[in-house]
Amino acid sequence: MCLLHFRCFLIITLLVVLCSWSIADISAESLERFIEWKARPLADVQKLAEEGDPVALAAIGHFYWRGHGVEKNREKGFEWTLKAAEAGDAWSMNIVGTCYANGFGVEQDMSKVFEWFEKSARAGYSNAYFNLGRCYLDGIGVERSQKEALKWFLESAKQGDKDAQNLVATFYMRGVGTVADPVEAARWYQLAADQGMANAQGDLALMYINGDGVSKDVAKGVQLLKASADGGYPQAMYNLGVLYQTGQGVEKEMTEALKWFIVSGAMRNDAAREAATSLTRELTKIQVNKARQDATQWLENFEAKSL
After folding, report:
1. Which DSSP string corresponds to the chain?
2. Rounded Cα distance, 281 and 285, in Å
3. ∠ Cα 35 23 228 (to 5°)
C-alpha cells in the first residue's frame, strides 16, 4: 500500500466547495459592518436610505435579514440590498449575486449570478473574487475558463483567503489553467496551511514526504499529516494510517493504523474502509477492539470540538 499522492481534487473537492454559495456575508461579516448603523435611530437610517445613500440602503437590507428593529423578512432584505447594489455598494453586489445563486429572498436565477459577482469584483470587493472564479470554473453565466478561474482565485488568495490559496495550490499542482508548478503549489499550500486549513496541511504533508516541490522532509510531512488528520481531513487520516501500517516516518503500529482507517472510513473515505476491513483480518481481537475504542473516542472528541 502506498500513499495517495493527491486526491482527484477537481472531481471531489470542488464538488464540495462549489455545491452551494456561501451566505456568510449576510450574517457574520455584516454584523461587523453595520454595528455603527444599528446604534442609530432607525428613522435616521431610513431617511438616509431614501435619499439614496448606498451604505444606508445596505444597512436597511441587513436589518431585514437580521430582524433588527423590523420584522425579519428575506424578500425585503433582498429588495433593499439590491437597491444598495444598484447604487454602487460593492458589498451589496456580492450579496445580490449570492442571493440569486441560492434563491435567498428572491427566486433563484443563475443567469444573474455572474453579472453581480463580476460587478462586485470589478468594484474591488475581495470576497467576490473567489465567487467570480467559481463562475468561470463552472461556466455559470459565462463560458468556462480554467485560466480565468485561476486569475480570480489568485486575486482572492492574495487577499489571504485560505480556501482560495488551497485552490490555487491545487491548480498549480495539477496544471489546471496554468503550467504545472509544484514549487508554486507548495508555496500556496503553505500559506493556507499556516491558517490552519486541514486540507492544505494534508496535501503539503505529502509533498514533504515525497519531496515534490520541496526538499524531502519526512518528519515535517508526518507532523503536517497529524495536524491535518486532527483537523478533520479524511484523506490525511487515511494516509496517516498507511504510515503507521508501513512504518514510514513513524514507528510501525498496526493498532494505530487501524484506528485511523476506521476514523477516516467513518468520514466516508471508501479506501480507508477497505483498508480497515483488510487490516482487521490480520490483527488479534484485542488489537481490533483497542483500535475501535480509540477511534470511537477520537470521533467523540472531534465532534465535541466541532460544536
Report:
1. ----S---HHHHHHHHHHSS---HIIIIIHHHHTHHHHTS-HHHHHHHHHTT-HHHHHHHHHHHHHTSSS---HHHHHHHHHHHHHTT-HHHHHHHHHHHHHTSSS---GGGHHHHHHHHHHTT-HHHHHHHHHHHHHTSSS---HHHHHHHHHHHHHTT-HHHHHHHHHHHHHTSSS---HHHHHHHHHHHHHTT-HHHHHHHHHHHHHTSSS---HHHHHHHHHHHHHTT-HHHHHHHHHHHHHTSSS---HHHHHHHHHHHHHTT-HHHHHHHHHHHTTS-HHHHHHHHHHHHHHHHHHHHHH-
2. 9
3. 105
Vertex 243 angle, CA 199 and 14, to 5°: 20
CA 276 to CA 279: how far, in whole Å?
5
Interhelix angle 90-102/126-138, rounded to 10 degrees, is 40
Name the one residue in this structure whose C-alpha cell is 496554468.
Answer: 178
The C-alpha cell at 40 is 442609530
pTM over 0.70: yes
Along the 307 residues of the chain, how does pLDDT read in single tens digits? Answer: 544 433 223 323 333 334 355 555 555 566 677 888 888 999 999 999 999 999 999 999 999 998 989 999 999 999 999 999 999 999 999 999 999 999 999 999 999 999 999 999 999 999 999 999 999 999 999 999 999 999 999 999 999 999 999 999 999 999 999 999 999 999 999 999 999 999 999 999 999 999 999 999 999 999 999 999 999 999 999 999 999 999 999 999 999 999 999 999 999 999 999 999 999 999 999 999 999 999 999 999 999 998 8
Q: Say if CB 85 and CB 113 are below 8 A apart.
A: no
Task: Report the alpha-carbon angle 175-181-186, nearest 5.
Answer: 115
